[in-house]
Amino acid sequence: MQSLGLNMPNCIKYNLIQHELMHALGFYHEHTRRDRDNYIEVMWQNIPPVHHLLFKLDDGNIQNMPYDYSSIMHYSNYVYSKEPGLPSMVPKPDPSVAVGQSIGLVDMDIRKINSLYNCDLCRKKLFAPGSFVFDSSSSETIVETCFYLIQSTYKVLLQLAEINLPSSPDCIHGYIKIYDGVSTSSPVFLKKTCGKVVVPPLTSSGNLILIEIGKTQPFARMRFIAIYETVKYGATIMTENEILSSPGFPSFYPNNANLYYSIVAPVGNRVSLNFTFFKMPPSPMCFVDHLTIYDGPAINSQVLGTFCGAVAAPTSFISTGNVVVLHFQSGDTKGYNGFIADYKFVNSR
After folding, report:
1. In the chain, where does DSSP find H-type helix?
2. Residues in the annotated binding site
3. Which positions does UniProt annotate for Zn(2+) binding (predicted)?
4. What are the chain's domains?
5. 177 vs 210: CA distance, rounded Å
6. Which of 41, 94, 186, 189 has its CB 3.0 to 4.6 Å from that of 178, i.e. a possible disulfide?
7. Residues flagged as binding site for Zn(2+)
């Protein structure tokens, strides 16, 4: 029996609550598992004796799982040290390995829970930046729903490539669905989609994106590549009459910005885009700061134009389909306001 507690207000935090819930589920600290001396060295001389018990080995079930420096159950390097700058633990063999974190459960934590409780579920938690390939082999008979939760420190920019899902009416044989948030009750970025499709870059409104992958037909081959990164700016826009601008407008935009605005109109509509201000530095072929506008959902869609101070400013555009993507990048130049634009949806007929 473990005695657990959460003191207010300091302990009422997402990561601390998850840490204590792991204890309630029967898990000990990662740095106290019986094989920990193969992976870390406890610096006993830097830890007050009153805290030595917190680093004592536990004889828990490690479930044949690898040691995880990033587990929510692993203390950081300097926890309970006598003085700032003195480590309480040093990783082996590479002392520079990051130890512990305050974000929340990682994928290995979830795998351990599923293993301990015999939960054969397809669930993964990923942290930006990174990538993965989802490839459900054509010989695989498993029928299930998988969830990939992607988290970042700011916003998540998700790009999907080489999407190849079975085509079927209402996507009954397999699909992908994407949410702007932590659960299936979050706003929908991409409704159930199947076949060979192109998805625009998706930028979360918060720091989480959830991917749902449903496979309902045995032997169906499903494959796509997901690339995700942390960004401070950008948006995926599905409602009308908002204003688009470079970061910080009307002030100067920051250096080294990289953002996508993906404007998605309802099917049967087009996007009418109108720029009311544009100011960027000149550069040969717009190599440094620039804005590129794509007539479609992918970066290999037709380019409506790439603009900077050396090229005539963009004015007005109407897309041929229901998606327009704006990609803005800045370098190290300073003193420019960027752009501002408005848009509306117009019927294709």
Report:
1. 14-24, 107-116
2. 19, 23, 29
3. 19, 23, 29
4. 14-104 (3.40.390.10), 121-231 (2.60.120.290), 235-347 (2.60.120.290)
5. 8
6. 189
7. 19, 23, 29
Instruction: Considering the candidates 20, 140, 212, 229, report the single residue annotated as catalytic.
Output: 20
Reported pTM: 0.73
The DSSP 8-state label assigned to residue 256 in this structure reads T
pLDDT (tens place) for every residue of the chain, 349 residues total: 556 666 667 667 778 888 989 998 889 999 999 999 999 999 999 999 999 999 999 988 788 899 999 999 999 999 999 999 999 999 999 999 999 988 888 888 988 988 888 887 788 889 999 999 988 764 454 567 889 999 999 999 999 999 988 888 889 888 999 999 999 999 999 999 999 889 999 999 999 999 999 877 766 788 899 999 999 999 999 998 889 999 999 999 999 999 999 999 999 999 999 999 999 998 888 888 999 999 999 877 899 999 998 677 788 999 999 999 999 999 988 889 999 999 999 998 7
| 242 included as an active-site residue | no
Instruction: Kindly calculate the radius of gyration of the chain based on its CA atoms and give it in whole angstroms.
Output: 25
Question: Which amino acid would we find at residue 118?
Answer: N
Instruction: Name which of 255, 245, 277, 233 is nearest 335 in CA terms.
Output: 255
